Amino acid sequence: MSVKSSKSSVLRHGRLVAGTALAAVAIAGGTIGVAAAATSDHPAAPVAAAAPAAQPPAAEQPPEGARATVKVDPNPAAPGGEVTITGNCGGGKGLKKVIGGYPGHEILKDLKIVDANPDAFKATAKLTTKIGNGVGPVMVDCDGEAGVTLLVTHTPPAGE
Question: The pTM is what?
Fold first, then answer.
């Protein structure tokens, strides 16, 4: 392998990690902002009874290719603990892959896709024991749509 191709590989890997981190932050920022707004001290606006749930206008939807939703339970989770990954493929064909962390720093092991159903997928995994307290992305590939959420990890206090 030449020096030029090694440098190119490192640059591509760096861009992949940076892009993944940026996507996770952007999605988490939107999720945290919505959660903060929903839990504020202000009363909720009245909701019309029996009104059907409408799709948000196209301008408010995530871009095509990033419409899958994903949830990790429990969240936060302890190193070595088991988690369940669920969600919706948002128009994708079905769950194909789940990635926890980023290349070279994976946080999920023993991953099993239990149900790849595009309307309600389910997977299980264990967290590695080599992680401590922090936050990392969990991404899903739904064959046409992708999604990401953040998983918080914490080490329980001694004696628990």
Answer: 0.63
Two tokens, residue 61: 């939807």
Tokens (6 digits) for 107: 């946080």
Distance between first and last Cα of the chain: 50
Alpha-carbon span 145 to 92, nearest angstrom: 5
Euclidean distance between CA atoms 100 and 106, whole angstroms: 6
Instruction: Render pLDDT for 109-133 as a digit per residue (tens, 0 to 9).
Output: 999 999 999 999 999 999 998 888 8
Rounded CA separation 152/52 (Å): 34
Residue 132 identity: G
User: Which CA distances in Å does 76 have to 53, 62, 71, 90?
Assistant: 30, 25, 11, 25
**Helix, strand, coil % over all residues of the chain, rounded to 5:** 25, 30, 45
